[in-house]
């Protein structure tokens, strides 16, 4: 059987998958992460080839979330505080020297780093979890509380930092997108009957949401762009239905990056295919099913990549850790000034600069890296955030 025939057969099988509850698969072990991850489809093994439905979330069911440190400043913006879940284990080694666990480094310019939004890094047995925000030089702010599975696996922050969008299941096989202010106020129902396994709600630069509908059979359907500000919540449907999972929208509005059978493919704002990112193919040296951030013009992408066969390729859920930044035209890796430390996350800002999160001692530090690749500043994160992951950086 040749490769092309195999791909076609697997694609046909993937179209017949039956979605199961997210909690039904929370105990499947991931060799790569070394932790438990929750899977939302019984055919997750097919997704990397067919780019069909399937998602997984990092879990740690054997450990309860630790209490927040008492000496860490926090401004409460939600009446329902929760504990911070445990951290995601390291996936690479670091020979970095230690640095302070919290607070801002003295004499470090931080004005160009935007506001960072954080969510829990893993799923525990908690029913809910709070998001947080932090701007270097200031205190952490406790934001709204969400169902923990949404806070870990699908919540997204609007480009202006004022709203969040997330998905919830009604227990009867239907999934609904909600939005709310970051403090929890003005909650709105956006759309029901959306596909929950492959595409989480993704904000466009003008405040619209990209989503994928679910057919009556539960299979994924069309991609649509929902106008969150319109009274009728109107939708502009894509003419195409690419076989793709996850999505990132560039800050200039012109590019949408998604995981496909080619690794990562770039589309325009109407869903028309532009090009594949070179060097990401399961039959080659590198593979990726996890994308984290896209540059304003779509010319660079932060993602998690690995050698095919070296890791559990079935783990295809949203995973915001980054192991490399690539040029989307050449596929070449962009050099980052990490100082020998472990790279954890990368987020592009509107001016093309990057906020780079690195392991620093027992906590983390965020670097401001210019578009030319030079380090502008470095600030240690507060200790209260070390068990969380960055969801977005808003200027």
Tags for this model:
five-stranded mixed sheet; membrane; mainly beta; transmembrane; WD40-like Beta Propeller Repeat; 6-blade_b-propeller_TolB-like; transmembrane helix; Neuraminidase; 395 residues; 3 helices
Describe this structure in words.
With 395 residues, the protein is mostly beta strands. The protein has a single domain (3-394), classed as 6 Propeller (Neuraminidase). The chain has three helices and 27 strands. The protein has a five-stranded mixed beta sheet with strand order 4-7-6-5-27. Strands 8-9-10-11 form a four-stranded antiparallel beta sheet, with no helix packed on it. Helix 1 (3-14) crosses helix 2 (44-50). The longest helix is centred in the N-terminal third of the chain and has 12 residues, at 3-14. The termini are far apart. Residues 5-111 have low confidence and may be disordered.
Strand line-up in the sheet with most strands? 4-7-6-5-27
Q: What is the count of β-strands?
A: 27
SSE pattern: HEEHEEEEEHEEEEEEEEEEEEEEEEEEEE
The name of the CATH topology is: Neuraminidase
Return the CATH architecture.
6 Propeller
Q: Percentage of helical residues? A: under 10%
For this structure, the quaternary state is single chain
Please give the radius of gyration in angstroms.
20 Å
Uncertain regions: pLDDT < 50 for 5+ in a row?
5-111
Q: Look at the structure and give the mean pLDDT.
A: 78
* CATH class label: Mainly Beta
Q: How many helix segments? A: 3
* Largest sheet features: 5 strands, mixed
Q: Count the domains.
A: 1
Terminal CA distance = 52 Å
Structural class: mainly beta
Q: Could you give me the name of the CATH homologous superfamily?
A: TolB, C-terminal domain
Strand content: 35-45%
